[in-house]
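ok, trying the design again with the full structure, not the truncated one.
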């Protein structure tokens, strides 16, 4: 029962003649195991060749350095350097996923401590990156939703950074998402940008915001893939003149060097904040009070404003309407994705309180960056022409069609244009970019991160439309559809004739991901093209979001 530490022996012994000798000695008792700390790596990392390291210490008998054993995924690591207080073991070529560190360390008295930790890796060579311009969980409630298609064969692995700092996903299964499942990370009291999500392969990524704090309006924005970053973005319109409107143009720099940006509205400098520089991992968020018009353009360079070396950035517009009660965000349209043919699932200027504009602007260039002149554009709703006219370079049109309801909505033009739908519904404002037909004709599997018709005040529709024409300009064949939520089928149907649509809801249901597949046959063996979006009323506020294809 002696205590840990040093002990002293003392005393004396005498003979019969009275001669005495002292007894003196000491020894130590060591029953304490070594202290193990700082097992690395941990959490989510993007390096697939990390160094496995462990710190340890022992105040008693000291570390038995020959006893140190480190294992990675149950395999003993041989290439390790051991000192009196640390072991480090370089490894390379790890696959994406969860990896487990185990092992042990023993002191010279034979007391042993275990080594234990895990980390999740998204290998750089395999990662697919998604971006958002901003995150705000101070003034609003903000989630980054990460999901995986139910048809995937294995889990997808995510990591997440905001403003250049990695976020801890240990509460969210370390960023590992199985097929047909989703996670909903949220970080209290955090504001900043850009937001970067890295995935081990293509996944389903979006950002959901309730505005203001406590949530009266809902906005959802799909993540923008890294391949769609651009040095030149467009929108058809800007408005910080209408009563109750505030409008920010957000430009984020996801790169490693400083970028310089320029914003123009209707081809002109809109005022202070229209030019500037952005450090790596940072964002600019200018507003232009009293301005209304379009088109809006953001350009970026790496050498200087209006420079010679283009630089890729991420850009979006954020709008508060209703004197700050409603929030909307719409990503910019990259110049390389400008099109002469766009679709939306639906138009509504018949429901009480609904106003709906189809905005078309002529950017003066085509998707290849070549100058273009006046273009002729046509708008159709449910296959019927409702507007046709010419649009000069730098000009735009904003027609409405009172009393109309239906879909799909189609814009076609003789040259490349910028096209969005803007809606006001009761107290809310929403803008949805057109879906380019060139992408539509290869789209038959649509996914979203989440569905909610369970929360109080939520109504949620999944809209599916059959395009009037196929890629060859012929009348589309009838299509059949299947809808899955959280990996389980919830509805199937058809046939939908060319230009027809369906708008099902699923009361009492909440979860994700949501997946819509469309087919040319009832046996669901031949994929078919379709147009799909989700529409949500959240306590009377309206939001629409395209699926990921």
């Amino acid at each position: 029962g002696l205590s840990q530490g040093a002990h002293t022996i003392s005393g004396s012994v005498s003979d019969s003649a009275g001669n005495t000798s002292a007894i003196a000695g000491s020894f130590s008792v060591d029953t304490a195991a070594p202290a193990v700390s700082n097992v690395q790596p941990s959490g989510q990392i993007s390096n697939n060749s990390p160094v496995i390291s462990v710190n340890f210490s022992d105040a008693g008998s000291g570390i038995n350095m020959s006893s140190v054993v480190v294992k990675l995924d149950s395999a003993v690591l041989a290439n390790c350097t051991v000192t009196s207080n640390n072991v480090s073991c370089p490894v390379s070529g790890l696959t994406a996923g969860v990896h487990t560190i185990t092992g042990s360390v023993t002191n010279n008295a034979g007391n042993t401590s275990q080594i234990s930790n895990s980390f999740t890796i998204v290998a750089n060579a395999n990662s697919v990156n998604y971006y958002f311009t901003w995150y705000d969980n101070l003034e609003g409630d903000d989630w980054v939703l990460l999901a995986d298609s139910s048809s995937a064969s294995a889990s997808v692995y995510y990591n997440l950074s905001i403003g250049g700092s990695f976020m801890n996903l240990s509460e969210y299964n370390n960023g590992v998402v199985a097929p047909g499942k989703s996670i909903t990370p949220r970080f209290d009291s955090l504001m900043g940008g850009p937001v970067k999500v890295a995935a081990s392969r293509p996944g389903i990524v979006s950002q959901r915001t309730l505005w203001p704090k406590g949530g009266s309006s809902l906005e959802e924005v799909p993540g923008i893939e890294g391949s769609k970053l651009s040095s030149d973005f467009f929108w058809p319109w800007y408005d910080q003149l209408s009563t109750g409107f505030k409008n920010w143009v957000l430009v984020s720099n996801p790169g490693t060097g400083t970028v310089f940006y320029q914003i123009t509205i209707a081809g002109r400098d809109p005022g202070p904040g229209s030019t500037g520089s952005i450090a790596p991992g940072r964002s600019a968020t200018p507003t232009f009070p009293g301005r209304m018009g379009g088109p809006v353009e953001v350009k970026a360079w790496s050498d200087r404003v209006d420079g010679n070396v283009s630089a890729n950035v991420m850009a979006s517009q954020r709008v508060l309407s209703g004197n700050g009660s409603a929030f909307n965000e719409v990503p910019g349209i990259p110049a390389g994705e400008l099109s002469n043919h766009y679709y939306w699932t639906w138009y509504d200027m018949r429901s009480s309180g609904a106003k709906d504009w189809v905005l078309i602007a002529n950017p003066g260039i085509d998707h290849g960056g070549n100058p273009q002149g006046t273009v002729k554009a046509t708008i159709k709703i449910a296959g019927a022409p409702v507007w046709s006219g010419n649009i000069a370079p730098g000009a735009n049109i904003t027609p409405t069609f009172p009393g109309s309801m239906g879909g799909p909505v189609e814009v076609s033009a003789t040259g490349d244009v910028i096209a969005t739908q803007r809606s006001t519904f009761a107290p809310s404002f929403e803008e949805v970019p057109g879906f380019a037909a060139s992408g539509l004709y290869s789209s038959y599997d649509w996914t979203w991160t989440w569905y909610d018709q369970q929360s109080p005040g939520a109504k949620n529709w999944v809209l599916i439309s059959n395009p009037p024409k196929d890629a060859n300009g012929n009348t589309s064949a009838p299509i059949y559809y299947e809808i899955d939520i959280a990996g389980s089928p919830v509805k199937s149907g058809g046939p939908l004739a060319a230009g027809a649509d369906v708008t099902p809801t699923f009361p009492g249901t909440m979860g994700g991901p949501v997946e819509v597949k469309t087919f040319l046959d009832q046996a669901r063996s031949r994929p078919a093209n379709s147009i799909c979006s989700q529409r949500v009323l959240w306590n009377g506020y309206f939001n629409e979001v395209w699926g990921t294809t």
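Keeping the full-length input from now on. The mean pLDDT is 92.
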